[in-house]
Amino acid sequence: MTPTLVRRHRPSPTSPESRARDWAEIQERMLVPLYEAVYERLETGPGTRLLSLGCGSGLALLMAAARGAVVCGVDADGRRLALARERLLPEGARADGPRLGLGGPEAVTGPDGPLFTLVTAFDPLLCAGTGPRGLARELARAAAYAAPGSPVVLAGWGPQERCAASSALRVAARLADPMCAPARWRPSGRDDLENLARDAGLTPDGSGRVSCPYGYADMGSAVRGLLSTGAFDAAVRATDEEQVAKELVEALHPYLRGDGTVWMPNVFRYLIARV
User: Which residues form a coiled coil (predicted)?
Assistant: First the structure.
């Protein structure tokens, strides 16, 4: 790609607030097929008490609530959580409506419960901030608030050869300084989710695969959406956003269609484990 095309497609540097909004408006919907497949398989609906770890801006919670579930969500990103509150807790919402909290499951539970019947960790990049060991500890903490036998759902990338987004995520891994960011994106191993579940004291009990293509209106939206995931934060700190965006455009160019849209087929894998 010529320098002129790179400059034309590269968005302006973004603030943390705009990245949270980009997540809510561009990127979060890419995982809708995953949410739907899990909720359908587990018959999520009235009687389900759901805890979402890394709930983001609340789209998965909104879909579960529409099925009749009682929903709670926690996230480490206060900006995303604020957008979830806009979606799930509009002015005049009932006092017994969704609970949202910053941090771990303790933020949405009191000494008397509730006992959750479903726990989800849908974001395949959730461990980028804590590493797998940190995520295993978070899952174990969440499982302590779940009823015995309840499902805990983990999600991750499918095989690299079936995930077009891998080419973009390799940019994040290559540009990030390993001394400053030891928890970086890496390709998913075949047994990663099972190992994570066992480390958290959970028992694997089935899995599935779901097609979750990443589709964007144009190259600028694609770069903004991917930057909003958090997978590129370490790379931005190690270099700068302009450099990361430039290399992202180059990595995404094979998926740029004649009409200007960007289409990246991906397969995600989910694991159902039991408390």
Answer: none
